[in-house]
UniProtKB/TrEMBL annotation:
Membrane-crossing residue ranges in chain numbering: 12-33, 45-68, 80-100, 106-129
Name of a matching Pfam family: DUF6198
Signal peptide from the UniProt entry: none
Protein origin, superkingdom: Bacteria
Protein name per Swiss-Prot or TrEMBL: Putative membrane protein YczE
PANTHER family (UniProt xref): INTEGRAL MEMBRANE PROTEIN (PTHR40078:SF1), INTEGRAL MEMBRANE PROTEIN-RELATED (PTHR40078)
Alphabetized UniProt keyword annotations: Membrane, Transmembrane, Transmembrane helix
Presence of the UniProt keyword Flavoprotein in the record: no
UniProt xrefs under InterPro entries: YczE/YyaS-like
Organism per entry: Anaerosolibacter carboniphilus
Length: 224
């Protein structure tokens, strides 16, 4: 039970830190990351918050991931729901400042990306499944045989273009994020000696089978 509670605590710490990192890159006011351009475009078009847009897109991606054969974990579901909720709490209550000048904005954007890297260590390290967007990247890589870099770039170019058409904010920060986020996450992984390849994920279907096994044991008749 302690191990389970620790994994859940680690997961939600990671999701909250991830939301902080995203909001910091948004409030740097230099231009949004590709997915956030898409979320903001949806937010402006439909009249919902960016957090709600993130949740809605995450739900759609989970459905697509499932059809493409990707296994879902409780972390996948939690990622879909809680990052968006935490983003709304932070943004609607103005808990993270908005900068207008280049230097502090740039520093906050870089710090936000580094925090996203630390958040990834927490939530991926919980071993409860990857997020919906990462799941789509993995699924399309398997289906097409293309490289991860090609698939990731293709996805982000598509969501960036759609978000821009819908009115999402593109600026120099968009380019900075696209070029630097991978390096910042990798730097965080190296700094804390986190090896993503060593993580053993537990998926929802694993828990369903485990629960089914328990129920069978309880129904098995005893022999006198």
């Amino acid at each position: 039970m302690k191990a389970v509670l620790f994994r859940i605590l680690r997961l939600f710490t990671g999701l909250f830190l991830y939301a902080i990192g995203i909001v910091m890159t948004i409030n740097a006011n230099l231009g949004l990351a590709p997915w956030d351009v898409f979320h903001q475009g949806l937010s402006n078009t439909i009249g919902i918050t960016m957090g709600q847009a993130s949740i809605g897109v995450g739900l759609l991606l989970i459905i697509i991931d499932s059809f493409l054969g990707e296994r879902l974990g409780w972390g996948t579901i939690s990622n879909m729901i809680f990052i968006g909720l935490f983003m709304d709490v932070l943004m609607l209550n103005h808990l993270i400042p908005i900068f207008q000048h280049m230097l502090p904005s740039l520093l906050m954007m870089l710090l936000g990306m580094f925090i996203i890297g630390i958040a990834s260590i927490f939530y991926i390290g919980a071993g409860l499944g990857s997020g919906p967007r990462d799941g789509l990247m993995v699924a399309l890589t398997k289906r097409t045989g293309k490289s991860v870099r090609f698939i990731r770039n293709a996805i982000e170019i598509c969501v960036l273009a759609i978000g821009y058409v819908l009115g999402g904010f593109i600026g120099i920060g968009t380019l900075i994020t696209a070029l630097a986020i991978g390096y910042m996450v990798q730097f965080a992984f190296k700094l804390f000696k986190f090896d993503v390849g060593q993580v053993q994920h537990r998926f929802i279907d694993d828990d369903i089978r485990w629960l089914g096994g328990l129920l069978k044991k309880e129904k098995r008749p005893t022999v006198d």
